[in-house]
Amino acid sequence: MQVLKFGGTSVGTAEAILRVIDIVSEKISKEPVIIVVSAFGGTTDALLQCGSLAAGGNELYKEHVGHITTRHLDAVRQLIPVQQQSSMLSAVKKLCNEVEDLCNGIFLLGETTARTKDKLVSYGELISSLVITAAFQAKSVPATWWDSRKLIRTNGEFGNATVDFALTNEQFSLELQSLSTPLVVMPGFIASDTEGITTTLGRGGSDYTAAIAAAAVKASSLEIWTDVSGMMTADPRWVLNARVIPAISYQEAMELSHFGAKVIYPPTIQPVMNLHIPVWIKNTFAPGDAGTVIQNESYRNGNPVRGISSISNLALLSLEGSGMVGVPGFSRRLFEALAAHQINVILITQGSSEHSICVGVDATAADKAKMAVDAAFAPEISLRKVEPLIVEKDLSIVALVGEQMKSHPGISGKMFGSLGRNGVNVRAIAQGSSERNISAVIATRDVRKAINLLHEEFFEKTYKQINLFITGVGNVGGRLLQQLAQQQQFLLQHMRLQLRVVGLANSKRYLINEEGIDLLSWKAAMDHGVEGNITSFTDDIIQRNLRNTVFVDVTASEEVARAYPKLLEKSIAVVACNKIACSSPYSYYRELKNKSHEFNTSFLFETNVGAGLPVIGTLNDLLKSGDRIHSIEAVLSGTLNFVFNNYDGSRPFAEVVRQAQDEGYTEPDPRLDLSGVDVMRKIMILARETGEHLEMESISNNSFLPASCMNGSVDDFYNEMLKQEAHFRSIFDAAAANGCKLKFVATYNEGKASVGLQQIAPGHDLYHLYGKDNIVLFKTDRYPLQPLVIKGAGAGADVTASGVFADILRATLN
Ligand SMILES: NC(=O)C1=CN([C@@H]2O[C@H](COP(=O)(O)OP(=O)(O)OC[C@H]3O[C@@H](n4cnc5c(N)ncnc54)[C@H](OP(=O)(O)O)[C@@H]3O)[C@@H](O)[C@H]2O)C=CC1
Ligand SMILES: N[C@@H](CC=O)C(=O)O
Predict the structure, then answer these.
(1) Count of C-beta atoms within a 10 Å radius of residue 713
(2) What is the pLDDT of residues 420-461, one digit of tens each?
(3) Which of 168, 336, 416, 480 has the fewest Cβ atoms nearer than 10 Å?
(4) pLDDT of res. 141
């Protein structure tokens, strides 16, 4: 014999019931079947509402009873041919009249009891099971209706009665003896106590009814037919890539259902588990789907984690105090105080110091718990041996479930590492010695992020999703977006990275799309972005709380550089080609570095020196491996190198500078390049990376630019350079007369840095440096005579964007 249970949505309409008839008809051709049905979807709530309206003296309950009646009569009319309808129509009408009578009674009394409520809601399953039995019979499927109230015997705890299995099993055996049809239909959820008074088995209790029946008749299997295709690896409303678990053990299923996986009512497993009856979760609306089988063994598929679940609305209660250490009985008194007020403890942790004990309870019980515990420990609290109970709310539990976790080291390491890297603060941890469940208590606002992270870590070997927020979509930012668009598929296939640009901002507006902005049409989409500034953009980023988030600064804005701390504090990685942060006062540079360590996230700015050249990375590799820097000599301005490589007096100096700007080598404000400030910033950043506390004021700048060029606007700057052409020409001629080239050189030696224009003679390391190239020469303990040389294009949108891209990838691998 098989037992099948159909839930409220599976029997919610006449059409759905016809589908149930098809499914069951096929089954009974093979073996006899008991089906357990819920009330038509929504009926239980509707009945409860009638009761509370009536209890509140509101006559609207009559109208609601009317709707319930009409719905069921309509179902009879749709499912049963006209000539056979009358007896079922009058049976339904009679039961609905009883509902109304009951509500009339409640209305007169002005109150409901748990017992009356059980009676009231029982009509949902009673009517549905009778209508469905008649529907089978109308389709010529012989079916017997069994009254669950006569079969399932419970105590008198209305609303959540406890089953007397011995008596129940006996009743089933008796009933089976006289069974003459291949099909039995039973109402779920309802039962009765020893005096025959109607009781219920708790919300969701129809699953339980089916399990009780399956155990009583020793069914070959129990099938729970619902509106999803099985138990999922995580809640699909939160995790897009959640998938059906093909097979799961009883223990794992109990853990997952306890932790909020709504597919199965938690107590359902118990009756069938001892008899090793397999339980299938199947989808009434997609009967061809394989579903999930819940069975005795935990199957091995190489993944020790079977699913991820969560419980929301948790409060953490901490009892702390020096007076607790080594004194037996504190835990007992705590739990007794909670139990005396019917407060269910969901999670317990206690540090081995015994200085505190911490329990998780439903947040709705937190205030009651505080009063109870503070009262229980009043003597110790008054003596300051114990602190008043500390209550923290807005918390949730996320849990990994899997029987094989116990034999796999490193699962919790991976779990907490992944949460930590993403700024999810773990408030408490619990892992039973069965190691079937690892639970972490976190802020409720982090749950979606945490579940997605854990799902990615344990189930999505296919890819890791990276959420990018890019500020600055000009010369370099625009090119970065092109490169990202071009590489997206490659990264997915070869690095299993799904790089999604989720946010874009310029100085006036920003655009956010959590599904990922289309990188081929971002410009048009930006026009429809919201008006905002860096504060609103970064607030929005933080509020969204997405996992694996990288903020990319491709502006030259101080305001944007000031936003990094609040992002790093949320463990959001920062990648910047904007040099302002690292060349601000040393204290700010240090603060950012410290925050990146403290919050375990990346702060990367390789492109601050040498654009796409690996300058900072190389320097750090040398230092980390124990080398010591003696000196740095470098040409660090792509713009100035380009200008002096292309200026020979045949066209105005200003025109060559303009060309450098047009080709994208200069800063947004080219005066920073021509004045040498950009180079000062770069050599200072390199010196700081070696550990030197250098400030801009202590760098000497032998500038070649007449001071008058720095007055006024950028247009004024170009005009003034035209006027100063003779000055530039004379510098060039002097160098040429010596057979030298002009190079704007930065040096760092013995803690001192300087920048300035120099005549470089043939044979010098810096002489053969063409186009917009940069060169950096490191002399170190290991490179004392011949320096380590890094050379190549040091400016331009393409190379800079690729350097930023590389930093983004580094940040994602953190
Ligand atoms: N060019 C190169 O070779 C290299 C450049 N860099 C650095 O790259 C950075 C970008 O340079 P580049 O692309 O040429 O600059 P652009 O002027 O072309 O683009 C700057 C972008 O930043 C945006 N922006 C400016 N202020 C803000 C703000 N407060 N909030 C949000 N967005 C803002 C601008 O928006 P809007 O249009 O609205 O003003 C624009 O989209 C600079 O810091 C530069 O030092 C680093 C290494 C090499
Ligand atoms: N404007 C800069 C670009 C890179 O930082 C330069 O010219 O070097």
Answers:
(1) 10
(2) 989 899 998 988 656 788 999 999 999 999 999 999 999 886
(3) 336
(4) 96
Our CA dihedral for 317, 320, 326, 331, rounded to 10 degrees, sits at -20
Ligand number nearest to the C-alpha of 664: 1
Asked if residue 573 has its Cβ within 6 Å of ligand 2, the reply is: no
Residues 388/381, Cβ–Cβ less than 8 Å: yes
Across the chain, mean pLDDT equals: 94
Which single residue is written with the structure tokens 């200069």? 666
Q: Which ligand is nearest to the CA of 538?
A: 1
| Within a domain: 583 | yes
> Which residue's C-alpha comes closest to atom 17 of ligand 1?
668
Host domain of residue 194: 2-41+125-226
Query: What pTM, to 2 d.p., does this model score?
Result: 0.73
| Ligand 2 midpoint to CA 114 (Å) | 77
608 CA closest ligand 2 atom index: 5
Q: Is 540 exposed, middle or buried (0-12, 13-18, 19+ CB in 10 A)?
A: middle
**Domain contains 193:** yes
| 607 alpha carbon – ligand 2 mean position (Å) | 9
d(CA 379, CA 354): 19
Domain boundary among 226, 245, 280: 226
Whose CA is closest to 710, among 701, 720, 722?
Answer: 720
User: Are residues 639 and 767 both part of a single domain?
Assistant: yes
Render pLDDT for 36-92 as a digit per residue (tens, 0 to 9).
999 999 999 999 999 999 999 999 999 999 999 999 999 999 999 999 999 999 999
Answer for the pair 320, 285: CB distance below 8 angstroms, yes or no. no
Query: Phi-psi category of 458—alpha, beta or left, where left has phi over 0 and alpha has psi -120 to 50?
Result: alpha
Residue 780 belongs to some domain of the structure: yes
402 CA distance to ligand 1 middle (Å) = 49
Establish whether 406 is a catalytic residue.
no
Residues lining ligand 1, CB < 6 A?
471-477, 505-508, 534, 554-557, 559-560, 577-579, 607, 611, 638, 664-665, 667-668, 795-797, 800
Residues 6+ apart with CB under 8 A from 197: 115, 156
Least confident of 201-210, 351-360, 684-693, 742-751: 351-360
Q: Which atom of ligand 1 is nearest to the CA of 664?
A: 1
Judge whether 608 lies within some domain. no
Same structural domain, 582 and 664: no
Decide: 226 in ligand 2 pocket, CB within 6 A.
no
Statement to judge: residues 350 and 471 lie in one domain: no
Torsion of CA 321, 326, 331, 336, to 10 degrees: -100
Looking at all shown ligands, the one closest to residue 470's CA atom is: 1
What number does the ligand 1 atom closest to the CA of 607 have?
47
Catalytic position from the list 682, 741, 772, 791? 682
The enclosing domain of 216 has a CATH number of: 3.40.1160.10
The verdict on 670 and 589 lying in the same domain is no
Is the distance from the beta carbon of residue 637 to the nearest atom of ligand 2 less than 6 Å?
Answer: yes
- Give residue 463's pLDDT: 76
